[in-house]
Amino acid sequence: ETVIFASDVRINFDKFRNCMTATKSAWGLFWCFRSNPKSFLLTSNAFVVAAVCCCCLLLFAAVVAVVCCYFRHIDVYTVEELKAKALQNDGKLEPIYGIIYGFISTLDIDNDASKIIRKRCSGCRCVVNEAANACAFCGDLPADAKATFTSFDILVNVSDHSGTLPSWYLSDCAAEEALGCTVHDFLTLTEDKKTALKWHLLLERSKIYFKLTLSPSWRTGLKVNVLSCKLADPTEASQSLLRKGKRSHYVAP
Questions:
Q1: Sheet containing 128-129: which strands, arranged edge to edge?
Q2: Out of 2.40.50.140, 2.60.120.380, 3.40.50.10470, 2.60.120.10, which CATH number does the structure's domain 76-248 have?
Q3: In angstroms, rounded to a whole number, what is the distance separating the alpha carbons of residues 199 and 193?
C-alpha cells in the first residue's frame, strides 16, 4: 500500500547524516494519501517538527509543500476524459496530474535498442545532444564519463475501455520501475528475453500515475509523462471503475 508517492526527487548521500536523503527539486512532486493512516501520521509529524524548528526555512518550505499536496485530491481519469479535458482548455492548460487504470498497448523494446536509450546530463537529467556532447541547460559537458548517464526514453500508447491516447513518455526511473530492470541489465538481455519482458507489461491492466501538459510541438498536441507504472491490483482497479460509473450515472434530485 502506497504511503507517499514521490516523483522527480534528487537522491544524494548526506555525509552529515551518513545516509541517503531525498530533496525536492523544481520538478518534484509529492502525493500523500488521506485515506492511509500511516500517511496521515507521517505528514502530521513532519509538519510539527518543521513548526518547532521553523528557523530552518528550507525544511519548513519543503514540508509545507508536502502538506499542501496532502490536501490535493488525486483524480482518476479514463482516456476519454483526458481527451475531453484537453479540448475544454483555452490554450493555457495547467498541468494535470492523475491516475489512470489502463494498459500499455504499444511497447516497442525488442527491436533497435538505440531508439529507446538516451544519454542524460548527470546534473539536470535532461537529454544530451550526443553529437555536440552538450546539454541544453548545463552547456558543454566534460569528457568525464560521470558527466552523463544512460536512461530509457520510450514512447508508448496507453489504452483503456474508452479509447487510446498515443505517445506517452515513459523514461528514466519510471521506465526502470515499469520494466523491472536497469538500462545496463536491459542491454545484456537476449532478443527473446526482451520480448518476454515486453509481454510481461504489454496489455496488462496497470496503475499509471501521469502528468499531462499542452505541447503544440508534440505529435498529439498533448505531452503525457508517465511518473509511475505498476501492474494494478484487480480489486482496486475494479472499485475505482465502479465508483466512476456511479458518479457518471448519478442524477441530482
A1: 128-129, 134-135, 139-140
A2: 2.40.50.140
A3: 10
**CB 126, CB 136: distance < 8 Å:** yes
- Torsion-angle region of 125 (φ positive above 0: left; ψ -120 to 50: alpha; else: beta): left
- The pLDDT tens digits for 103-146 are 999 999 988 888 888 888 777 777 777 666 677 667 676 666 56
Quickly tell me which residue has 520501475 as its cell: 177
Contact between 1 and 205 (Cβ < 8 Å): no
| AA identity, residue 197 | L
The DSSP element (H or E) to which 103 belongs, if any, is: strand 96-106
Q: What is the pTM of this model?
A: 0.67
Amino acid at 244: K
* 184 phi/psi in degrees, rounded to 5: -60, -45
Q: Helix crossing, 37-52 with 57-70: angle to 10°?
A: 150
Three cell numbers, residue 127: 537529454
Per-residue model confidence as pLDDT tens digits over 240-250: 777 766 555 44
Minimal CA–CA distance to 165: which of 209, 223, 108, 238? 223
Computed from CA positions of residues 121, 126, 131, 136, in that sequence, does the dihedral angle turn out positive or negative? negative
Instruction: Name every residue whose Cβ is closer than 8 Å to that of residue 208 and which is 6 or more positions away in sequence.
Output: 99, 100, 101, 102, 158, 226, 228, 229
Look up residue 169 and give its amino acid. Y
Domain layout of the chain by residue ranges: 4-70, 76-248
